[in-house]
Design brief:
The structure is a single chain. The protein is mainly α. Helices cover about 60% and strands about 5% of the residues. The chain is built from seven helices and two strands; from the N terminus they run αββαααααα. It has a two-stranded antiparallel ribbon with strand order 1-2. Strand 1 and strand 2 form a beta hairpin. The chain is extended and about 50 Å long. The N and C termini lie far apart (about 70 Å). The N terminus is likely disordered.
Amino acid sequence: MNSTSATATATTAASTTGPGTRAHQASDGPAAVYPSGATPVGLLVASPHSETTLPIVAGTGVAITVLAGCLAAVDAFPRFPRFARPVIAVGSMSLTAYVFHVVGIRSLGIEELPGSPLHVLLAFIVAVTVLATLWSRSFRHGPLEWLMAKATEPAELIR
């Protein structure tokens, strides 16, 4: 990109940004301008991480579809729960898995990177799945889930 083209792109991006818009610029392309949630039309935009109506509804729809697919698979294939046991183990201790993930990121010092390499992600997934599966053989809930249950037991006495 020559300097004239770069200046024109910057001028265009600057002129289209303003109140109620957000500019997102790729490193090698022109800025993409999305309305923010501050305007009525901004509530209908599906821009990255906009947390507006459309992305929330779409995310909810995807979650419901995945859950329906899992339930259908359990009904259709009697052996499916046996193969899904590691995922069920992680789900039964999701708070523990989340905290393990955050502690792992902090201890490896990778919180400042723009994105972790694929092998780091796969290592986290495998570690959490293996540890959760082993834990679930002896205990019904994860350690932090048990701690939360004990901490909230006094609330049952309040009426």
